[in-house]
């Protein structure tokens, strides 16, 4: 289709543009969001995608009603990738057999508007006799199988193909004929043995187009060359000097890129002067430089379980920009005068210089919060500046904690929503980086303290740049959840007897924290419902205000605030660097260079890289968990049922915070499976063989919200099996 025809079709509403999402567990199902955000457009089959891959921006044509296809389908609530969503114009009817019928307009992709997928994949080679090519089968089934020339394969592949059955390769798709289910491509690299951490990790990063190469000499030449570096006198004279103030950092114990620092001192009138001090990365990253270009391309640091792929060279992110203790550092600060209740009485933005007096971990700060009357000795804490007593630091942390509690309560009372899901962390062997243990990360009051002031700083920065540059501000918006998904979730919760209010972010937050009982499994129900509600949410995204005309669309649903941006992590997020530059324009430090079109494109790119980074981080965690289970399993844990399909069901394994799908055909001793719907509630009955033939078979009934005990074992990766009856 010609470009002009696409533009005309989009204007007339005959065509729809959106990001393609392919179901990872049912690769023949794909979805594109409808323009009004009410539901998803369902693409049935690989042909309907017209060779588009997951994440591509596509243009979809919805076919006329005479080409609609009628599907008889048991609606499976909470299926992966929102497969329960209706297509554009879909409707529900009841036929004579009382089965539910879904009438769908059968859409198809007419053009790939923008290729976002890397067209690279990790996978395995299969030898094909009498062919001059081999078959490459990607690990990700959403990517087609690829014919690769034998000349790309290892020299002895033809004579010894069995030697490569468990070897991972990287393949890049070069061509995909319109009339063929198989693509064509070239092998890019041999990774190593499947299941090993480093080959698997490199495969993940390559698939998601993460640049993990070393920084070039040209980039490194943009950094200060005279080391050790010190702040020039003329730069000091332009900044507010806070080096004598009690400023400190609170981060994970292993953190090396320290973006942010805090300060707090009580004033004579009983109020507090509170400061958030952020590394001034924009001082070192000159706009338009080679360093700036590579940072913009990477857009974010990528945090794997065993290492970090930095956005900036380590000299910057771990030394010159990092707010390391007892060292003068350049910062961008926002300083408020706050009442004890957290009311903002005044606000100041500006460039500053600080000298952090101590590098605190979350655990150090937490110990002070939990023992406010304790006298902490120097031996219990990291090295501290002699200019500030430990008691002074402790008092600052306690005052910040008290104000943070007020700010947090006010946020949630005003309608904010927090859907914190369990996060799996690992303890690693120092030499091999192999997982030695895993645990669910504990989110403490010290984490909440830092979070509240980072949120406050981000909101302040958003208002500052939008007030001055209403057409150029880079903000972060979060649309409300799709109405169709909310309606389905509400109906489902009602039929399950769950008192969940989905009418607003405030109602949902209260429901998750007040209405799930107080028995021993209330926390488990909350985790499951949090996961379920998260699936209905849309993703937050960056945008340039000049590209969106409706100010109401700037709103951040989860935070329930009109304006929000990212300002507090410029070492690891490029958007924050841009926000710092915008603030510098506001304060008259720099001249405007950026334009709306460039900023809009940059925001879109940062969205893509943030999404990819998040997925890489998830896959890294899954990989390490699989290796841990293989080495240390089987592991036993209680798990709660999240969703039931006709031949499988999903569980949240509570001890580890991981979701797993249990396929009935993999369960040993299972005699029969019976699936039915009670209203919208799916229900599965498992009938088990008895070891004693004289006894009747045991039956178990499963539906969402139930608790069971599972064993996580290794078999071609890992899977869950049932150990006991549901509770």
From TrEMBL:
<dbReference type="GO" id="GO:1990074">
    <property type="term" value="P:polyuridylation-dependent mRNA catabolic process"/>
</dbReference>
<dbReference type="InterPro" id="IPR022966">
    <property type="entry name" value="RNase_II/R_CS"/>
</dbReference>
<dbReference type="InterPro" id="IPR001900">
    <property type="entry name" value="RNase_II/R"/>
</dbReference>
<dbReference type="Pfam" id="PF00773">
    <property type="entry name" value="RNB"/>
</dbReference>
<keyword id="KW-0464">Manganese</keyword>
<dbReference type="GO" id="GO:0051301">
    <property type="term" value="P:cell division"/>
</dbReference>
<dbReference type="InterPro" id="IPR033771">
    <property type="entry name" value="Rrp44_CSD1"/>
</dbReference>
<dbReference type="GO" id="GO:0000932">
    <property type="term" value="C:P-body"/>
</dbReference>
<dbReference type="InterPro" id="IPR041505">
    <property type="entry name" value="Dis3_CSD2"/>
</dbReference>
<dbReference type="GO" id="GO:0008266">
    <property type="term" value="F:poly(U) RNA binding"/>
</dbReference>
<dbReference type="Pfam" id="PF17877">
    <property type="entry name" value="Dis3l2_C_term"/>
</dbReference>
<dbReference type="Pfam" id="PF17216">
    <property type="entry name" value="Rrp44_CSD1"/>
</dbReference>
<keyword id="KW-0269">Exonuclease</keyword>
<dbReference type="GO" id="GO:0010587">
    <property type="term" value="P:miRNA catabolic process"/>
</dbReference>
<keyword id="KW-0694">RNA-binding</keyword>
<keyword id="KW-0131">Cell cycle</keyword>
<keyword id="KW-0963">Cytoplasm</keyword>
<keyword id="KW-0132">Cell division</keyword>
<dbReference type="GO" id="GO:0046872">
    <property type="term" value="F:metal ion binding"/>
</dbReference>
<feature type="site" description="Important for catalytic activity">
    <location>
        <position position="259"/>
    </location>
</feature>
<feature type="domain" description="RNB">
    <location>
        <begin position="239"/>
        <end position="589"/>
    </location>
</feature>
<dbReference type="Pfam" id="PF17849">
    <property type="entry name" value="OB_Dis3"/>
</dbReference>
<keyword id="KW-0479">Metal-binding</keyword>
<dbReference type="GO" id="GO:0000175">
    <property type="term" value="F:3'-5'-RNA exonuclease activity"/>
</dbReference>
<dbReference type="InterPro" id="IPR041093">
    <property type="entry name" value="Dis3l2-like_C"/>
</dbReference>
<dbReference type="InterPro" id="IPR028591">
    <property type="entry name" value="DIS3L2"/>
</dbReference>
<keyword id="KW-0378">Hydrolase</keyword>
<keyword id="KW-0498">Mitosis</keyword>
<dbReference type="InterPro" id="IPR012340">
    <property type="entry name" value="NA-bd_OB-fold"/>
</dbReference>
<comment type="similarity">
    <text>Belongs to the RNR ribonuclease family. DIS3L2 subfamily.</text>
</comment>
<protein>
    <recommendedName>
        <fullName>DIS3-like exonuclease 2</fullName>
        <ecNumber>3.1.13.-</ecNumber>
    </recommendedName>
</protein>
<comment type="function">
    <text>3'-5'-exoribonuclease that specifically recognizes RNAs polyuridylated at their 3' end and mediates their degradation. Component of an exosome-independent RNA degradation pathway that mediates degradation of both mRNAs and miRNAs that have been polyuridylated by a terminal uridylyltransferase. Essential for correct mitosis, and negatively regulates cell proliferation.</text>
</comment>
<feature type="binding site">
    <location>
        <position position="260"/>
    </location>
    <ligand>
        <name>Mg(2+)</name>
    </ligand>
</feature>
<keyword id="KW-0460">Magnesium</keyword>
<keyword id="KW-0540">Nuclease</keyword>
<dbReference type="InterPro" id="IPR050180">
    <property type="entry name" value="RNR_Ribonuclease"/>
</dbReference>
<feature type="binding site">
    <location>
        <position position="251"/>
    </location>
    <ligand>
        <name>Mg(2+)</name>
    </ligand>
</feature>
<dbReference type="GO" id="GO:0000956">
    <property type="term" value="P:nuclear-transcribed mRNA catabolic process"/>
</dbReference>
